[in-house]
Structure formats: structure tokens, C-alpha cells
């Protein structure tokens, strides 16, 4: 009979005794795996929904977009030859205004559509009518349909007049469903739909104004999208065109979901690490109860291999059960919550059972179980039978080198798997580094807490309950390590999330309003600039006005090579960016390297680049950038780098060229207005009356949108951290259960010596409170340290301790451990001393 067969038979006999001692192990693994599986399943459901409805969300099989201009006849004909249908829309921001001098104004994201729109999907209106009929209007004015939120904000009803950028429309219906609503990505205002023909000749779509034109294509079924994309790139190589297709109809949403879910999976891994502490504690407690059986097996000639395999197979089977339960729970939860999640999500999601996320969660669970069970099993491998009979606590030494190597390999496999499957290598490495540092700090804190407890026990003479509690923490078999590790790690994650969220909200609520402008005014035509400045600069409530010419350009090449090949997937290269020009850089510009052109320079094009972004892209002085502006390639030499502070929400451009390079191109102006809050309404009213085509964007409204988005992210992260804390609470229960025998003996001994039940209970409560408070304090320190590191190195924001959040973490740790301790204090107190002491003998 082989060793594996013998071990399997012995493990099967052991398992007949039931799951006693392993319920916490199963629960910890199940909860951690379930959290990761659920997050992954929701992510896969969203990705599947985006893939299935990609054409509808995009508005066609593919899209070619241009900036500041529409496709010319040749470009449109080239696309029409390769498509079965073509639709061209314009997308821009503008102010919607009710008639009258005191009319209500609201920012809207306007879509000007042609007769072919929508190529895919259906537009739903209330009252129901064909879109063409609604946009045709009432005979006096063209029609507009608006999102219900915009209608409510303007306080109008169908049939009322409304102006968009000075063009009069009649509101015909509410826009209740827009098939390509998510194709535009992040927007600052609710949607309005108008006929593109209604805007012909207006300043809203004049050359140089800020609008995107998008040509949606329906392609033949046998079209090779990759080949079509390559052909478009070649045909529009000098036009600054951008391509999207139905394989990724909403790339911004898809990228956001992918990154958020990757982060939540990593938070789930932190929960698994907490669960791993519980797994390790459960295995140690179980093996401690099997010491004499192990010693007997060794005495009877069982080899180390047989004994190791016996308990490895047994614990492996139970761990597999925990993982299986976690997969069932994690796969079922999204299905059960599908109706609720479907209503909450603004994007389609196809909920179902997806093997990929379940396999990923199972892999994480299996590796975690292996890592945390191998150590206590390996430590028992070298202990002799005689030593086990003398020392029932089992092995205390380090495992053999081969086990240490295997543990290192398993840990590396876990990190590599998380990095590969999450797609966020750097974030994964930082997360694991943070977890490792936190575990080391928490283990050191547990040792320090034990030393402090020894000192407290000596100093607490005359206070029996406190002295007993301190002595129990400091003595052998203490629960200090598992309690501080499990509770501390969960609280550390919550503390970090709370501190980061609090600091970001404080920065937005307190710092930005003192430095940020009140408005951005865009689409100021050159002929409107002087009267515009006369209105705002002469207002005593306006403290500052900045303005600059504004164009949009796409960096297509760096030193004659495709920009993406040189600088990778940097965000500056992802679409078009703001470009400005200046006869000479303003006096308050901080040039960090190089020299700028002087006034009157009219030589070859030169460009000044934001220093931080240039460093990230690996640019140097003397490099040549090719920027496509309105379909024209402009190659300019980098002659200087500038410090640009985007955190003030003021005006800042990645690229600034000399005036001669761009002044001849059609363009508009942008201005930032710093005004007293009480004057903002009057400024908006006057600008809307005198410059109807100018769009004024409230910085406070934009900040509110970002704040809401941050709140959603923080809430999602807090739920993930909450699952980690629940796992930690299960570990606390496991620690309390494993120490119940020692507390029963302690209570019996104290009762025999005359201690009352109330005093013994007070001692147990003090022990739990001291451990919980200690874990909370250490978690607070590690959480603050982690939050500071993320704020300083990743977010690059200022940091201060948010004390209400900090105190909540400490109090939470105290309350959780106190609850777990008291929950399992009653049975030891109710045991009869004589019975307990006789059993101990």
C-alpha cells in the first residue's frame, strides 16, 4: 500500500468526526472567495453586456470622429463606399435658456443629428412620436427633445420655447431613451437632441468652435474590423481622425469598470489574507487537539510523509469545501441581485454564470489555503513522538528549507496570478507590499502588546480583573496574534479608505473653492472677445479673468515616429488635447527647462510642453512633435518645458505654440472668471443675453459631479473593506472558540479561589477590549500610513488625519472584539469547577 493510500484512508477516518474545529476555516475561505467571485461575475456581466450591445451603444458598427470640423465630401464618399449606411452627428456643450431677460439657464450636452440617426437602436420620447417628427418642430420653430432632468431644471413643458446657443427651438418631448447615450463618455450636462440642419449658419458649429463630428457606420457582415481600422488610419492619416468600433462601444465606461473591479478584487485578496490568518489559526488549533494521535501514529511507525499527507488531505478537502461554497455564493449573488443591479447600473449587463471569474476566485482561494495551512503542517513534520508526548503544544520551530521554498513559490504564484488576471501590475504589487508590511507591523504590535500586558499585570496589583486580563494577554496560548492580525488588517483597509476619501472630499470642499475659478467660458468668438472682457473685467465682484486662444489637436508623431510607439498609451495621446498659442509666454509662466520664443517670433513652429507630462512621455528638448489641428499637420520643435498646475482647476494647456504657428487657424477663445458667489447669477444672466453662443461651465457643478463619482467609488471600496472586516470577525470567533478550553479552566480556577462570576466576566471583557483597542490603534497607524503614501505618491494631494474616521476605527475594533469575546464567555462561566478541574487532570 502506498503512502498516499494510507494517508487517504487515515484522513477519511478523521473526517468522519465531522467539521468540528473547521467551521471557521470553511467560513473564512467561503467569504473571501465569494467576494472575489461576485465582483468578477458582475464585471464579466457588464463586459458581456457592453460586447453584445456595443453597436447600439456606439450608434453603429464603427465610428470615425473628427474635431472642430465635419468630414469633407471626399472623406464621406470614401466611407460611404465601404459601409451600408452612414450617419454624421455633432456633439458639443451649450447653454439652454428659457426666453426673456431673466430666463433660466442650464448647461446641456447637445447632439445635432441628421436624418439617418439612429443607425442602430431606437430613440424613445414622451409623449411618444417619431424622432423626425419631434425635430421638425411645430412649424414656427425647429424642435428639440431634452432629458427629463434638463426639462425639470428649466421648468418648461412640451410646447414651450427654449433657446440653445441663441437658436430658438420648441420643446417637443422628453428624451426617455437614447441608444448611444454612453458613447460620449463623461458629460457635464443633460442631453438635448436637435436636427443638425437647424444649426446651419449658427455660431454653435462655426469653424473653430468646440464640437466633435462623428460618422457612424453600418458595415457589411463580412467586414474585417481590424483591416477597416487600418484602412481608416491610412486614409485619414493627416486628418486627426479617431476610430472606435462596436467591440468597445463605450471605452471610458469599460475602462472604469475594469479598473474599479481590479481594485475591488485586490481588496478581496486582502480579505482572503485576513481569512488566511483564520485558516492558519484553525489548523493550529486542530493539530493541537490531535497531538497525542500524531505522537501515537509516529510511535507505531507511521512515516513523516504519511502523517503530513494525512492531515494535508484532510485539511485540503475541507478547504475545497469552503472554496466550493464561496463559488456557489459568489456566483449566485449577482444572479439573485440582477434585477436590482440592472436598475442601478447605467449600462447594460448580461448576468449569468461565467466560469472565468469563478476560476479566478477558486485559484486565489486555493493558493491562500495552501500558503496558510502549509506552515503549521510543516512545523509539525520534524517533531519527534517523545517530544510531542512531553510538549502537547507541538512544534515551535521553523519548517524545513524545502517547505520555505515551496511557500515562497506559492506566494509568488499568488502575486503573479493577481497581477496577470487583474491587469493592474503596479497596483497589485503595491497592494501585496502594503498587506505584507501591514502584517509585519501587526505581528510586531501583537508582540509589543504582550510585553505591555506583562508590565500592566505587574502594575495592576489591587485590581484583580485588570491583572487577570493583562496576564491572559501576556501568557502562553494568548489570542493576541490572531486577534491583532485578523482584526487589524480589516480595520487597516477601512482606515485607509476612510482617510483617502475624507482627504479628497476636504480638498474639494475647502481648497478648490478658494483657488478655482467660478466659470469656464468657452466658444468665445474672436469678434466677441473685447465686449466679453468689457463685461467681466469691469464688474467689481470679478477679481480675475484669464483668457487664451483655444484649439484642439491630436499628437500624431514624435520625431517622425507614430506617437504611441514612442510614448506608449499615455493619456495625452488618447484623443485630442487643448492647444493654445501666445506671442510670448505670460510672465507668470514657470519655465523649468529650455527657453521660450520672444515677442514677434515668426520662424519655424515651436512648442512648449507641460513638464510633468513631457517627463512621463520621455520627451526632451529638441524633440519634434507633429500635432494635427483641423486636419492639418503642424510639426514643431520642443523648445521649453513649463510647470502646469491642473489641481487649481484654472487654465492650463499641455501644448502652447508660438502665435505664428496657429493664429491663422479658425479658433475660439476660452476664459476663466473668478467672481464672488453672490455675483455669479448676474454674470450668467448677462453673458447668456449678450453672448448666447458662449457656454459658461460652472466649476462648482463640475466639482459636484466628481464628488458624487468619488463617493460611489469610496462606497464600493468600503463594501469590499466591510467584507474583509466580516472575515476578520469570523477569525475573532475562531480565536475565541480555540481559547474557550483555556478560559473554562481559568474560570474554574478563579471560582475555586473565590472570584465572583461578575468579576471573572469583567476580566474577560477587559481582555477583549484591550486586544480590540490595541488592534484598532495599530490598524489606525497602518491605515494612516497607507493613506498618506497613496495620497502623496499616487494622488499627489495634501494629507491630514481625519480624526472622526480615525476614532471610529479604534472604537470599531474595540466593539468587535468585545462582542466576539463576550459571545463565548458564558459557557466557560457556567461550567462547574470540579468537573473542569477533574477533566484537566
TrEMBL record:
Q: Name one GO cellular component term.
A: plasma membrane
Q: Which UniProt keywords apply?
A: Cell membrane, Membrane, Transmembrane, Transmembrane helix
Q: Which domain of life is it from?
A: Bacteria
Its transmembrane ranges are 21-42, 263-287, 308-341, 361-380, 401-421, 427-449, 470-495, 719-739, 760-790, 802-826
Please state where this protein is localized. Answer: Cell membrane
Matching InterPro entries, A to Z?
Answer: ABC3_permease_C (IPR003838), Membrane_comp_ABC_pdt (IPR038766)
ABC3 transporter permease C-terminal domain segment(s): 267-379, 723-830
Tell me where it mainly resides.
membrane
Give the bilayer topology.
Multi-pass membrane protein
Query: Entry's PANTHER family?
Result: INNER MEMBRANE PROTEIN, MEMBRANE COMPONENT OF PREDICTED ABC SUPERFAMILY METABOLITE UPTAKE TRANSPORTER
Q: What is this protein called?
A: FtsX-like permease family protein
Amino acid at each position: 500500500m502506498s503512502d498516499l493510500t494510507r494517508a487517504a484512508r487515515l484522513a477519511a477516518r478523521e473526517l468522519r468526526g465531522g467539521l468540528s474545529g473547521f467551521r471557521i476555516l470553511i467560513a473564512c475561505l467561503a467569504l473571501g472567495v465569494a467576494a472575489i467571485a461576485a465582483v468578477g461575475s458582475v464585471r464579466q456581466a457588464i463586459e458581456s453586456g457592453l460586447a453584445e450591445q456595443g453597436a447600439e451603444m456606439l450608434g453603429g458598427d464603427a465610428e470615425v470622429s473628427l474635431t472642430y470640423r465635419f468630414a469633407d465630401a471626399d472623406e464621406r464618399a470614401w466611407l460611404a463606399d465601404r459601409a451600408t449606411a452612414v450617419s454624421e452627428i455633432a456633439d458639443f456643450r451649450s447653454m439652454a435658456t428659457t426666453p426673456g431677460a431673466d430666463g433660466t439657464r442650464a448647461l446641456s450636452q447637445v447632439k445635432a443629428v441628421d436624418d439617418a440617426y439612429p443607425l442602430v437602436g431606437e430613440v424613445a420620447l414622451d409623449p411618444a412620436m417619431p424622432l423626425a417628427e419631434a425635430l421638425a418642430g411645430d412649424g414656427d420653430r425647429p424642435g428639440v427633445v431634452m432629458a427629463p432632468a434638463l426639462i425639470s431644471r428649466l421648468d418648461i413643458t412640451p410646447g414651450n420655447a427654449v433657446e440653445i446657443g441663441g437658436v430658438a427651438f420648441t420643446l417637443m418631448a422628453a428624451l426617455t431613451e437614447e441608444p448611444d447615450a454612453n458613447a460620449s463618455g463623461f458629460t457635464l450636462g443633460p442631453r438635448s437632441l436637435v436636427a443638425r440642419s437647424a444649426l446651419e449658419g449658427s455660431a454653435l458649429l462655426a469653424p473653430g468652435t468646440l464640437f466633435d463630428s462623428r460618422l457612424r457606420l453600418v458595415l457589411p457582415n463580412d467586414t474585417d474590423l481590424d483591416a477597416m481600422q487600418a484602412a481608416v488610419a491610412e486614409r485619414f492619416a493627416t486628418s486627426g481622425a479617431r476610430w472606435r468600433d462596436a467591440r468597445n462601444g463605450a471605452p471610458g465606461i469599460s475602462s472604469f469598470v475594469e479598473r474599479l473591479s481590479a481594485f475591488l478584487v485586490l481588496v478581496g485578496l486582502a480579505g482572503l489574507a485576513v481569512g488566511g490568518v483564520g485558516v492558519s489559526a484553525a489548523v493550529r488549533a486542530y493539530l493541537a487537539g490531535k497531538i497525542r494521535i500524531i505522537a501515537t501514529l509516529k510511535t507505531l511507525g507511521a512515516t513523516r510523509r504519511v502523517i503530513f499527507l494525512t492531515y494535508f488531505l484532510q485539511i485540503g478537502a475541507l478547504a475545497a469545501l469552503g472554496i466550493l461554497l464561496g463559488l456557489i455564493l459568489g456566483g449566485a449573488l449577482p444572479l439573485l441581485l440582477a434585477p436590482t443591479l440592472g436598475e442601478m447600473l447605467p449600462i447594460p449587463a448580461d448576468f449569468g454564470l461565467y466560469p472565468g471569474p469563478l476560476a479566478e476566485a477558486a485559484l486565489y482561494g486555493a493558493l491562500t489555503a495552501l500558503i496558510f495551512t502549509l506552515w503549521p503542517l510543516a512545523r509539525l513534520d520534524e517533531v519527534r513522538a517523545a517530544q510531542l508526548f512531553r510538549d502537547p503544544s507541538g512544534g515551535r520551530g521553523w519548517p524545513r528549507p524545502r517547505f520555505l521554498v515551496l511557500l515562497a513559490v506559492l506566494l509568488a504564484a499568488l502575486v503573479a496570478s493577481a497581477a496577470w488576471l487583474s491587469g493592474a501590475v503596479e497596483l497589485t504589487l503595491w497592494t501585496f507590499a502594503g498587506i505584507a508590511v501591514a502584517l509585519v507591523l501587526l505581528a510586531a504590535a501583537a508582540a509589543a502588546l504582550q510585553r505591555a500586558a506583562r508590565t500592566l499585570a505587574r502594575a495592576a496589583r489591587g485590581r484583580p480583573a485588570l491583572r487577570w486580563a493583562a496576564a491572559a494577554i501576556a501568557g502562553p496560548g494568548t489570542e493576541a496574534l490572531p486577534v491583532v492580525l485578523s482584526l487589524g488588517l480589516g480595520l487597516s483597509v477601512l482606515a485607509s479608505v476612510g482617510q483617502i476619501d475624507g482627504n479628497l472630499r476636504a480638498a474639494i470642499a475647502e481648497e478648490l473653492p478658494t483657488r478655482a475659478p467660478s466659470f469656464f467660458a468657452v466658444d468665445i468668438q474672436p469678434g466677441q472677445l473685447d465686449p466679453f472682457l468689457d463685461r467681466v473685467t469691469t464688474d467689481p465682484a470679478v477679481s480675475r479673468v484669464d483668457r487664451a486662444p483655444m484649439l484642439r489637436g491630436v499628437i500624431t508623431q514624435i520625431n517622425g515616429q507614430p506617437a504611441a510607439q514612442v510614448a506608449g498609451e499615455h493619456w495625452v495621446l488618447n484623443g485630442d488635447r487643448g492647444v493654445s498659442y501666445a506671442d510670448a509666454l505670460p510672465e507668470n509662466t514657470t519655465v523649468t527647462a529650455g527657453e521660450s520664443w520672444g515677442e514677434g517670433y515668426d520662424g519655424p513652429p515651436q512648442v512648449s510642453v507641460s513638464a510633468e507630462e513631457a517627463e512621463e512621455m520621455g520627451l526632451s528638448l529638441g524633440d519634434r512633435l507633429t500635432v494635427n489641428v483641423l486636419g492639418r499637420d503642424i510639426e514643431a520643435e520642443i523648445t521649453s518645458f513649463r510647470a502646469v498646475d491642473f489641481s487649481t482647476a484654472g487654465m492650463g494647456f499641455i501644448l502652447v505654440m508660438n502665435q505664428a504657428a496657429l493664429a491663422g487657424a479658425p479658433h475660439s477663445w476660452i476664459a476663466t472668471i473668478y467672481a464672488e458667489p453672490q455675483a455669479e447669477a448676474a454674470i450668467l444672466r448677462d453673458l447668456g443675453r449678450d453672448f448666447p453662443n458662449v457656454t459658461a461651465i460652472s466649476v462648482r457643478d463640475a466639482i459636484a459631479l466628481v464628488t458624487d463619482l468619488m463617493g460611489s467609488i469610496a462606497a464600493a471600496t468600503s463594501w469590499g473593506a466591510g467584507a474583509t472586516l466580516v472575515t476578520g470577525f469570523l477569525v475573532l470567533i475562531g480565536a475565541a472558540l480555540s481559547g474557550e478550553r483555556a478560559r473554562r479552566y481559568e474560570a474554574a480556577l478563579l471560582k475555586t479561589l473565590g472570584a465572583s462570576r461578575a468579576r471573572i466576566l469583567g476580566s474577560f471583557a477587559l481582555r477583549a477590549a484591550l486586544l480590540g483597542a490595541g488592534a484598532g490603534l495599530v490598524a489606525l497607524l497602518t491605515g494612516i500610513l497607507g493613506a498618506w503614501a497613496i495620497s502623496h505618491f499616487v494622488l499627489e494631494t495634501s494629507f491630514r488625519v481625519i480624526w472622526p474616521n480615525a476614532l471610529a476605527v479604534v472604537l470599531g475594533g474595540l466593539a468587535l472584539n468585545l462582542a466576539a469575546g463576550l459571545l463565548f464567555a458564558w459557557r466557560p462561566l457556567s461550567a462547574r469547577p470540579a468537573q473542569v478541574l477533574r477533566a484537566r487532570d
